[in-house]
């Protein structure tokens, strides 16, 4: 197994010489975190700088004030949309089934995409990270997420259950070994799977790495990320009374596990909105709208 790299300032290498067919956004380097203005306008300035990274000619300023323009302009480095050539449902336990799909080149180099969350599920845009002429692209929804059933079920739904599911899917699709691509929570799952089955992994690509360590959770949910996304933080914070703000994770946990459905859904929507608004440097209206759905927000 070879670590192909991290999607930000990476040089992708592997034992398969032609594997660097991932999106060209992998060539971007980190921008300084000490930028003077982390309001929405400041974040737009960072994106313009990133888009012009390595360009020797006069930088081309892009009008990104209209939210409708942001999505296509940010996705110019991704591959075109492709449709699956096969889909299926795999029973992985007494109560759980997982949805899977394949797209791209049926005889290409197999790569499995591990989504975030936990509970985020996959979307058609996830296929766009990969060159469809080169890769056999496998996406699946983890237990309780997306099209997998039962929806939002936490029974028999541990990290180790998910690792077993990845291996069961590899065997079901008769793939000897594959590349593993994970983002956010998916990066944790990718690392755990590769440690459990190193002989089945040709390489790893990890993006948006989030290992669920306490210091990461504290930074993201207890005010650290608020310095970068102050506009998004307000609605996340304001749902919780001031006397409970010493620990937002506990305050939200109490509401998400409430017997009152409306309390549950209100907390789920606020929690998911915060995650969707901070998933990109600029607002991604598609993600934000997705997070407004009660069924989706409850599982994430």
Automatic annotation (TrEMBL):
<dbReference type="GO" id="GO:0004177">
    <property type="term" value="F:aminopeptidase activity"/>
</dbReference>
<dbReference type="Pfam" id="PF00561">
    <property type="entry name" value="Abhydrolase_1"/>
</dbReference>
<dbReference type="InterPro" id="IPR000073">
    <property type="entry name" value="AB_hydrolase_1"/>
</dbReference>
<protein>
    <recommendedName>
        <fullName>Proline iminopeptidase</fullName>
        <ecNumber>3.4.11.5</ecNumber>
    </recommendedName>
</protein>
<dbReference type="InterPro" id="IPR002410">
    <property type="entry name" value="Peptidase_S33"/>
</dbReference>
<dbReference type="GO" id="GO:0006508">
    <property type="term" value="P:proteolysis"/>
</dbReference>
<keyword id="KW-0378">Hydrolase</keyword>
<feature type="domain" description="AB hydrolase-1">
    <location>
        <begin position="110"/>
        <end position="239"/>
    </location>
</feature>
<keyword id="KW-0963">Cytoplasm</keyword>
<comment type="similarity">
    <text>Belongs to the peptidase S33 family.</text>
</comment>
<dbReference type="InterPro" id="IPR029058">
    <property type="entry name" value="AB_hydrolase_fold"/>
</dbReference>
<dbReference type="InterPro" id="IPR005944">
    <property type="entry name" value="Pro_iminopeptidase"/>
</dbReference>
<keyword id="KW-0031">Aminopeptidase</keyword>
<dbReference type="GO" id="GO:0005737">
    <property type="term" value="C:cytoplasm"/>
</dbReference>
<keyword id="KW-0645">Protease</keyword>
